[in-house]
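note to self: dont lose this again. the chain is below, predicted strucutre after it. 198 aa total, dont forget to put it in the shared folder this time
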Amino acid sequence: MEIGKEEGGCGAKGFTGVHLGAIVATVWILLLNAVVGFQLLDDGTPVSLGLLLGSGAALLVGTGYIALDTGYQWTGHFDPSLTPPNRNVGLYVLYQFAPLLFLVVFFILETFLVLRILGEKRPMIYLGGSALLFALGQIFQYVVSIHICNGTAGKIDGALFETLFTLLAVAMLWVFWSSITEDDWPIPNSGVGGAEYT
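---
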């Protein structure tokens, strides 16, 4: 059976295209947030927000279009990727290579920012933990998944654990980001009239 010809695959193709575009755009925006730390442009200005959102939207739409064109065969340009050996160079570069490159550059920029500019060491524990959790998720997705799938007769695969470890990596990244920002979170101060923030 050819890929994409199975019954009921139209909805899955649409969700897959949006999902792939969202992954690429999200990792790109994460990289741009690392660049913001160097204050090349003032963060929060219309120009910086426009560049961030505009470039993210371009990657979302571009990657989504290639994935959707491949799945729905709108133009026929990507039809050769639907037959063995199923190679779509555009999707490979945008979905596999580009996010990996963005993440590596993100970790390099953040490491430089924390160690050289801020002179801190403790946040590196959180950043390293985030990288380790993300790597574990990728190991489950690409290495362990086939063994889980075979062992459970196809009922589950490594995506469950990959998602869990990616979620934990994002949470650890939030802890990292919180540890390097100067802002204090408002602390409730119980006063006469109720809770007041200081």
